[in-house]
UniProtKB/TrEMBL annotation:
One of its GO terms (cellular component) is membrane. It is a peripheral membrane protein. Coiled coil: none annotated. It holds the Pfam family HMA. This is HMA domain-containing protein. GO terms for biological process: plant-type hypersensitive response. Residues 2-71 form the HMA domain. It is found in: Membrane.
Length: 119
């Protein structure tokens, strides 16, 4: 059974927030971690077999004052899949690759009488 734990931690700087997240991620059984709350001072942990009291104690010891707000079962979020039969698919755009341009060139040589010797 997945459980959702919300712990309020006194975090005033970005360094404290990253330190708290590193501590939570190190606990075995944690699947996802996030920050919530108006001031991003609540750590939301989702996982299986997590000891919430031990986690709160670790945060209290290494970061700052921590308070366990809630502990409950994590709700599954179901994604809605659109019906493939109702949606009209447009055909892929036809691409026409033009060949590279053909350049015409002409070699011009001066007509020099010295070069033409017919004997």
């Amino acid at each position: 059974m997945k459980q959702k734990i919300v712990i309020k931690v006194s975090m005033h700087c970005q360094k404290c927030k990253s330190k708290a997240l590193k501590i939570v991620v190190a606990v075995p059984g944690v699947e996802s971690v996030g920050l919530a709350g108006k001031e991003k001072d609540e750590v939301v942990v989702i996982g299986e077999g997590i000891d919430s009291v031990e986690l709160t104690r670790r945060l209290r010891k290494k970061v700052a004052h921590a308070e366990l707000l809630s502990l409950g079962e994590a709700k599954k979020v179901e994604e809605k899949k659109p019906n493939s039969g109702d949606a009209k698919c447009s055909p892929p755009p036809c691409g026409y690759l033009q060949p590279p341009p053909c350049y015409n060139y002409c070699v011009v040589q001066p007509n020099d009488p010295i070069l033409c010797n017919i004997l």
